[in-house]
Amino acid sequence: MGPLDDQVVREDSLTATADGLNVAVYTHWYRALPLTSLTKVDLTVDGQPVDPATLSVTVNGHRYEFAELAVKADEYWFTTDPVVLHVPVATAPGRQHRIQLQLGLSIPYILTGPDRTPLLTPSSTDKTLTAA
Amino acid sequence: MTDTAPGLPQLGTTLFSLTLEQRAPGNDLAALLRKVATRELGPGVEMVAFQSLRGWPRLDDAAVRKVRGLIADSGLTPSCLAINLDLALQPGRLLSDDEAYEYVAVQLRGAASLGFPAVRVGVECGPEIMTRLLPLAEQLGVKIGVEIHAPLTIDAPPVAALKELFTRLDTEWLGFIPDFSASMRAVPAAVDDAHRKAGIAPELTALTRQLWAQPGPTMAKFPQLEQRAAELGAGQAEIGNLKMIFTMHGRMEPERWADFFPHVIHVHGKFYGVFDGPDGPSDPSIDYPAIVRVLREQGYTGFISSEYEAHAYTGLYSAFDQVRAQHDMLKRLLEAEPAVAR
């Protein structure tokens, strides 16, 4: 909820590559978070849900499988940098895609409830955009 | 700079106010510091290390030199560096006390190398860790302040435990950073806009506002809200957003700020908008005269960092203009309040 949610996926976020579709995602939280905070990426492209196990991501110039992020506690996603999701779907420059993304960030310093679990802060995106 | 008369609190800005501006092309750290200085929103400058400093918490020497140079060039005075104890850094467990100490200690050393005289931590940095950090704080000459942000109050058990610790240790190096958000008189109007855009039914927002305004401790209102909002058909995500009204906007009486003294090392001037009214500019959600009176009575001469946070709800207003309006109002109130004989 809030103005930063509108910027999670931007007008120029989509790029067609030989391997599929790259989606540049920006954080809706105000500060850099450890990569372990990127806990929920529910992505649907053109109505087809994308299994996170098939996603790889590039952040800070390194490419990781999505599952690897859970052990990357010593690396941070900086406030103004994108995380690029590499999505295995067919595309080409100029093609339009409907991107629905439920992003959930685990906030490691805000602990909630008697079990002291980290706050999960969501953002919701539904945009139809053209791949460059 | 918004200079205040000698013997009064000093004003400043935290770059957190500029969260939306930071996302605009060209607004890197150098540009934001320059703009704060050009618009005379100092003399103090604060920042959230994890927000503003790429590479934090491990800045190399070149990065430290660069940041120090940018602050020096701006002419602003480093007031406080907000750091974080990311207790849930590792999935499925919390950091041990040893890990938590190291996580904060690295950042305390970083703050010292950048020339900040104080750091801000959250209440999750409890008495045990604070006690262990004290020798390092003394050695580095950096004060550690625990921010008291809504929904915390001076009476909340973790805050009371810290007060007991600070009283017992009787040290200038550990203390509180009270935040205006702990003492609000109304929920900001921008909340309604944000809820509407998020598709939250107006009656749910109204219910939450009504519960907020009722007397009684905020903590007791969370379960009431959950139950009554669910009866009105709210889902978990909506209830989470509604709870933020309680989490972000506290109701402690401003007069209770006196109880944080003499352990106040810094103040956060959180606010959600200063607007022109029939009697001049005012903030509908925060009782500035009441808080300013306490700061004057206690002889507080540290910084008040203006912390505009309506950007969490709306992008309609310029944070620069809002901080300007808050500075003008604070300066007028601080200098109008009669001096207190001490």
Automatic annotation (TrEMBL), chain A:
It comes from the Bacteria. InterPro entries: CGDB. It holds the Pfam family CGDB. One of its GO terms (molecular function) is lyase activity. Residues 5-109 form the C-glycoside deglycosidase beta subunit domain. Keywords: Carbohydrate metabolism, Lyase. Belongs to the C-glycoside deglycosidase beta subunit family. This is C-deglycosylation enzyme beta subunit. It comes from Actinoallomurus iriomotensis.
From TrEMBL, chain B:
It comes from Actinoallomurus iriomotensis. SUPFAM superfamilies: Xylose isomerase-like. This is Xylose isomerase-like TIM barrel domain-containing protein. Residues 43-332 form the Xylose isomerase-like TIM barrel domain. Pfam families: AP_endonuc_2. It comes from the Bacteria. InterPro entries: Xyl_isomerase-like_sf, Xyl_isomerase-like_TIM-brl. Signal peptide: none annotated.
